[in-house]
Amino acid sequence: MLPRRVDHIGIAVNNLEEACKFWEALGLKSTGVEEVADQKVKVAFFPVGDSEIELLESTSPDGPIAKFIEKNGQGIQHFAIRVDNIDEAIAEMQDKGFRMIDKVSRYGAGGAKIAFMHPKSTGGVLLELSERV
Ligand code: ZN
């Protein structure tokens, strides 16, 4: 596995529309809002150079983003590393003894294949591995 770049930084927000205003004021443009039913979120991506800012608003009080905000307030929730082959990356990290939350990749926003690693294995960071076609 050769990580290519920081793919994006995920920020949990209470209100996507409100949160977008700041990033737009900063001069960035969203690629549009997408709902990912599987993760109970709607998201907006703001490309910045080779990386992106991902804003996430929960669509359900029992979703992971709602729970995160309840516990920590709004803020950085995860970050993502781009990999060439997610299935190989998952297998490699497990072989090395690190804990994956997702042992099989799943669908992420923008058509990406993603898998989260457990913060207990990464020094306290919720790390998303992301493969994009
Ligand atoms: Zn993400």
Give structural attributes.
single chain; 133 residues; alpha+beta; 8-stranded mixed β-sheet; 3 helices; globular
Written description of the protein model:
The chain has 133 residues and is of the alpha+beta class. It has helices at 16-25, 64-72, 86-95, and strands at 5-13, 33-36, 41-48, 51-58, 75-82, 106-107, 113-117, 127-131. A hairpin with a 2-residue loop joins strand 3 and strand 4 (51-58). The longest helix has 10 residues, at 16-25. The protein is globular, with a radius of gyration of 14 Å. The mean pLDDT is 95. Bound molecules: zinc ion. The site of zinc ion has 6 residues, from strand 1 and strand 5.
Topology diagram in text:
Blueprint: E1 5-13, H1 16-25, E2 33-36, E3 41-48, E4 51-58, H2 64-72, E5 75-82, H3 86-95, E6 106-107, E7 113-117, E8 127-131
Parallel strand pairs: 1-4, 5-8
Antiparallel strand pairs: 1-5, 2-3, 3-4, 6-7, 7-8
The structure holds zinc ion.
Name the overall outline. globular
Average per-residue pLDDT, rounded, comes to 95
- Can you list the strand order of the major beta sheet? 2-3-4-1-5-8-7-6
Distinct small molecules bound, one entry per kind: zinc ion
Percentage of helical residues?
Answer: 10-25%
Euclidean distance between termini CA atoms: 16 Å
Query: How many strand segments?
Result: 8
**Largest sheet entry:** 8 strands, mixed
Structural class: alpha+beta
Q: Provide the gyration radius in Å.
A: 14 Å
How many helix segments?
3
List segments where confidence is low: pLDDT < 50 over at least 5 consecutive residues: none
What string, H for helix and E for strand, traces the elements in order? EHEEEHEHEEE
Content of β-strand: 35-45%
